[in-house]
Structure formats: C-alpha cells, structure tokens
Amino acid sequence: MANTVTVKITDVNKLAELLDNLVASGSNQISGIKFGFDDDKELLDEARKDAINNARKSALLYAQVANVNVGDVVSINELDTNLPQPVYRLTEMDQAKMMTSSGSVSVMSGEQVISISVTVVYELKN
C-alpha cells in the first residue's frame, strides 16, 4: 500500500525538520523535492528583457565585425524555459556539519537561478 502526499512549505529552513518528522513517522520513500517560486512571472519577464538586450548587443557586435548594419527584427523565438534549479554552495563548515551529522536530514542553503534563452533573427543591411 502506498500513500502519496504533497506538502508545500514556504520556509526552506523548516525543510530539514519536516523531513526528519516524516522519516520518524514511518515514511520510507520521499521523492520529488522541488524548489521554486510562488510567483516567478516578474522574474521571467526581467530575464526575457535581459535576453533580448543581450541578443541585440551580440547582433551589433557581429554586424560591426562583418561590416554590415543591423536592420529590423525578423523573428524572436523563446527556447524552452528552464525551471528554477537550486544552486548549492557548501562552505567548509557546512561540509563538516554533514560529516558529523547526528542522523538528521541536512538541507544546504543555496540560490535559485531563472534563465531564458531566445533566438533573435535580424535583417542585415549593407
């Protein structure tokens, strides 16, 4: 018999305690831990603006080197958006804590990265 439960917490500092309690209460399979944002629309829009600006800068550089001018945008395509992924950074102290852990679950802090990739096609003019 299997029971599936979805739990959402908003304080990552409580995650280790929650996992400890789940294991202590008999859970023997825990999977699908995901990190994300409640609302990432504004962050994604900022990433989109940055991606378009970076594409324009690159196009201008390439055009300068090729001795041509950048014209109008022909098309813009957004590639598959990466879901937010945690990026972990362990300090020596964090590593030492993990090595001497008393059996408790250890959750390392990190940061979320949101990225957007776009392909922009520009008209080139002589």
Structural Rg: 23 Å
Number of helices: 3
Termini separation: 70 Å
Count of distinct strands:
4
- Write the CATH fold name of the domain at 38-125: Translation Initiation Factor IF3
Shape: rod-shaped
CATH class bucket of the domain at 38-125: Alpha Beta
Q: Structural class of the helix and strand makeup?
A: alpha+beta
Mean pLDDT: 81
Question: Low-confidence parts, pLDDT < 50 over ≥5 residues?
Answer: none
Proportion of residues in β-strands: 15-25%
The CATH superfamily of the domain at 38-125 is identified as Protein of unknown function (DUF541), domain 1
Strand numbers in spatial order across the main sheet: 1-4
Q: Any idea what the CATH architecture of the domain at 38-125 is?
A: 2-Layer Sandwich
Reported for the largest beta sheet, the result is:
2 strands, antiparallel
Write the H/E string, N to C: HHEEHEE
Helix content: 25-40%
Q: Could you explain the architecture of this structure?
A:
This protein has helices at residues 15-24, 41-66, 92-99, and strands at 69-78, 85-88, 110-113, 118-125. It is of the alpha+beta class. It has a domain at 38-125: Protein of unknown function (DUF541), domain 1 (Translation Initiation Factor IF3, 2-Layer Sandwich), CATH 3.30.110. Strands 1-4 form a two-stranded antiparallel ribbon. The longest helix has 26 residues, at 41-66. The mean pLDDT is 81.
Summarize the structure in short:
The protein has helices at residues 15-24, 41-66, 92-99; strands at 69-78, 85-88, 110-113, 118-125. It has 126 residues and is of the alpha+beta class. The longest helix has 26 residues, at 41-66.
